[in-house]
Prior knowledge:
GO terms for molecular function: ATP binding; lipid-A 4'-kinase activity. This protein is of the alpha/beta class.
Amino acid sequence: MALSDRLLAAWYAGHPALTVLQPLEWLYRRVVRRKRARFLAGEGEIYQPPVPLVVVGNITVGGTGKTPLILWLIEHCQRSGLRVGVVSRGYGARPPHLPWRVEAEQAAEVAGDEPLLIVQRSGAPLMIDPDRSRAVQALLASEPLDLILSDDGMQHYRMARDLELVLIDAARGLGNRRCLPAGPLREPIERLQSVDAVLYNGAPADRDDGFAFQLKPTALVNLLTGERRSLDHFSPGQAMHAVAGIGNPQRFFDTLETLHWQPVPHAFADHAEYNVQALTFMPPLPLVMTEKDAVKCRGFAATDWWYLAVDAVPSAAFVAWFDTQLMRLLPDRLLP
């Protein structure tokens, strides 16, 4: 297990040895609190977009289901007739220049795995740049939009925002509730009191402190042909190699088990790069991976490689709440 994986496991298990990192945690807290205080005071250069901007992020290290929820938000807004775009840091991307407009035919090495997935699934215009304010300006210069979604960017305080949606893994929660490097929190836990909504990935129902949403498996898609098959394509008890290079690989393996399959788990680092050798396992079995991994593997996929398509399903209460926010932010575009 890599050092980063061991540290992540310790954060969420509450390992007592992490107390030695408390002095560094104190310094980290001081820096992030000062940074946010400057933002709230309007100090420094803060870009205010001319259209509403919604940040979809988290305060923890590790996967929380941002990409599926962003896809749901895009589709929901598009059904209302809104022109919606996305900005992303583009972690792991190596474009020729920045900002960079992601197109569906680009390679994941250029565009980044998550941005490429979003564009291929939704067709929404998407710009990547670690400077998200610059990405927003470039995106608006390229075409007219009514609303922008920021894939993460909670801590990007040079960009003003109209809504902040924070995602939390319902099973893992906030770990030991400490900040980096003693815990998984990017900001102190009291930051949740200032956001507009908290969504719990995997929660069975809405909670007093937030909304629930589920990730629902919908189909198996063949990497080589693009053919979609129903979830009964594999019989109960089917053994398969399961590949996940995401923030929380165990969640993917658990999902396969809930479908009554027998996955042989192969966890990789988040945003891992793949080749045929890395994905050649024994004994020979069908291989099932996440859609995020699939965008990097289509060029060398075998005939029995599949990805599991999943859709975010937020609670009815969240849908109603979000529609109310859209009416508030875009009254001229969404007349009753």
